[in-house]
Structure formats: C-alpha cells, structure tokens
Write a structure and sequence with these properties.
CATH class of one domain: Alpha Beta
CATH architecture of one domain: 3-Layer(aba) Sandwich
Helix content: 40-55%
Structural class: alpha/beta
Number of strands: 11
CATH topology of one domain: Rossmann fold
Distance between the termini: 128 Å
Length: 377
C-alpha cells in the first residue's frame, strides 16, 4: 500500500509579509504625493500664465467707478514699448482695500496738488511702495509731502508734487516714465524710490511657463529655489520673503522675473544689474542736462547685497540717498516689535507695503532731507 504523500505547503509568515510590504507602501505613498504636488504646481503655473500681459488686458474694459479692482484691471498696454504698461486714466476704484484715483494722464492723484504749470514741481518715480498700495490717495507719502510743503511755504510759486509710480515698475521703466511723461515743465526735484525687485520685471511680463512639458519638474524647481534661499544670509532671506508677499486682494502672488531667458526678447535688456546701472546713469545725465536735482529713497526694512552695491553707484553718480529703511528698523527695534511685518508701519502681517503710519514716517523723513539738502529754497 502506497501512502498518500501531500505536497509541502508554503506558509507566508505575517511578519515576513509586513517586512517587505511596508517599504513598498511607503514608496508608493511618496510617489503619489510627489505626483499630486507636481500637478498642483503645474496648475498654479497655468493660472499664473493667465495673468501675463497680453490681448486679454487690451480687451478688458476699465473697471466701473467705485468697483473693487485688481492691478490687471487698472492697467493698459503703453504705446511706449519701454514702459510696457501704464495705469488707466480717470480711475476711481478700490484697490488693495483703499481708494485709488488717477488723473487724465494716468498718474495717481496727489491730495492738495497745486496743479499749476507755474508751480515748482517735484516728480516721484517708483513702484508700489511710492504708489501707495494699500493706502488711500491722501495717505501716500507724496500726498503728505505736498501738504507739508504747502504748510511750510508761502511763496508766490507753490510746490506741485506728481506721483508717477506704478506697481511693478522697475528702475528702467521708472526713468522711461520720467522722460516720456514728466519733463515738461521741468521738475525741480526728481525722487526715485528703489527696492530689491528693481532688477526684475513683473510676473505678468515674463514668458508663459510650459505647463505641459514633460522634460522638467515644477516641484523640483520649487524645491531648488527653497534650498537656494535657505543657503543665503538671513537678511537676504528676509528680502526674498517680503518679495513673496501677496500683491493685492484678488490678485496673484507677487513674484518678479529676473531671468532673461523667461522674459520676452524685447524686454531682456531691462532685467538685471546692468540694466539698473544704465538707467541710473541715464537719470544722472538728465539731471546734468536739465539742472534738476535727483534724490534716491529706499523704505526697505531689509539690507542685502543690492543695497551695498547700489549705494556705491549712487555715491559715484553724486546722487544723495535717503535711507528711510534705517529709520524703519530703528522704530521696530525701539518699540519692541518682533519684525517689520508685525509693526504698525506695514499694511498687514502678510503685506509689506507701508501703512498710513509708514507713509507718514517716510514723508517726514523726506521733508527733512529735502530741507537739509537745500532743495526747498
């Protein structure tokens, strides 16, 4: 009799299964998370592409009186290609929580402006800080300066302050706006505000990002930028953090483009240090040719390589420099605030633009500086 011989049965031990299953599941979770994040970053890039300056801006009607508006609704493409875009004339809207009006030339209104051709003119060129993003017309430091000039000066020829600042402009665009719009009649004084993104172009002028391209990873690019930021000095990280603050309610996150490869070819020479230096030298030539005074002002609470290098250039060109940022830093330290964004000088903890109190401080410093330089005589 032959006994039945059963084939051996292999029993998989539960612990042995768990030993190889756990790493596999973890790897799968990591891959799925990375793919999801990649999709999110591509979606964000696609949404940002929709905000790039183009035909959509040209076709959009101006916002109605009293409406809440984004920057994209407030601008139009400029006839001058070096300006790229400009504010629409005769605006009366709520932008970033504050009332904004512009005159027939598209300049932001300066409360109390004498407006007479015979007036002694001060022209300000700059970006969103001088423009006064987040504060009303009468609260910008140029409006406060206009009132202080009127109170202090009883001469037959009043002072007239003009605000040419436009959010997002860099120094090349600012100097071009002075040449294009404000040399007749000649100003007595030109005030140019500088910030760290004066080497860049706004994010809506760059090239569209190829969101469907498979030869690059948007997640990897984001991680690389964050790693580079962590390797920088603390003051440089602070400056980068301020640049990444929200642009305005209802608008995109404000990041600016300093990579010529992502800027349309016609704007490539408007990006970087070389473009900034060339614009400042052109401004100095205009000063010498027309007998104007030029003053550089900075409200930035941070101090980085751009400050050091630009100050050397200003000294070389003989342009006086007013560092309001130094006064801001002292105010923050003396009053025990953890940083600038937690102080009443900023619009909010997420918006580094100066508040009404910040603009009042800047106006007081500017008035004293102009007096000290003998420019108000």
């Amino acid at each position: 009799m032959i006994a039945n011989v059963k084939a051996p049965v292999t029993v998989s031990h539960p612990r042995r299964r768990a030993r190889w299953a756990a790493p596999l599941l973890a790897s799968a979770a990591i891959v799925l998370t990375a793919l999801a994040l990649e999709a999110v970053f591509r979606l964000l890039a696609h949404l940002e592409n929709g905000g790039i300056l183009g035909a959509a801006v040209d076709a959009a009607p101006p916002p109605p009186r009293g409406a809440r508006a984004t920057l994209g609704q407030m601008i139009r493409r400029a006839r001058n290609p070096r300006l790229v875009y400009e504010l629409r004339p005769r605006l009366d809207v709520v932008f970033a929580g504050a009332r904004v009006t512009t005159d027939g030339s598209g300049f932001r209104a300066v409360a109390g402006n004498a407006g007479a051709a015979a007036a002694r003119r001060i022209v300000g060129i700059g970006d969103s800080y001088m423009f006064g993003q987040g504060v009303a017309d009468e609260q910008t430091y140029l409006s406060v300066l206009q009132r202080r000039l009127a109170d202090a000066d009883q001469a037959a020829r009043p002072w007239s302050v003009v605000n040419l600042a436009v959010p997002g402009y860099n120094t090349v665009m600012e100097v071009e706006s002075l040449k294009d719009k404000a040399l007749e009649p000649l100003p007595r004084v030109v005030i140019v505000e500088v910030v760290g993104n004066d080497l860049d172009l706004p994010n809506f002028i760059r090239r569209p990002q190829p969101v469907w391209a498979l030869d690059r990873s948007f997640l990897a690019a984001f991680a690389s930028r964050r790693l580079r930021l962590l390797k920088r000095a603390p003051d440089e990280r602070e400056a980068e953090g301020l640049r990444g603050a929200p642009e305005a309610e209802g608008g995109p996150v404000a990041h600016f483009e300093d990579d010529p490869s992502r800027v349309p070819p016609e704007y490539a020479d408007m990006v970087g240090w070389t473009a900034f230096e060339k614009a400042m030298r052109e401004l100095a030539r205009l000063r010498d040719a027309h007998g104007m005074a030029v003053v550089v002002l900075s409200q930035s609470p941070s101090f980085d390589w751009f400050d050091r290098r630009s100050r050397r250039l200003f000294a070389q060109l003989g342009v006086p420099f007013l560092d309001v940022g130094r006064v801001v830093r002292r105010y923050v330290a003396d009053n025990g605030f953890p940083d600038y964004l937690h102080s009443p000088l900023a619009v909010s903890r997420t918006d580094p633009h100066p508040s009404p109190q910040g603009h009042a401080l800047a106006a007081a410093e500017l008035f004293r500086f102009l007096e000290g330089q003998g420019l108000l005589q």
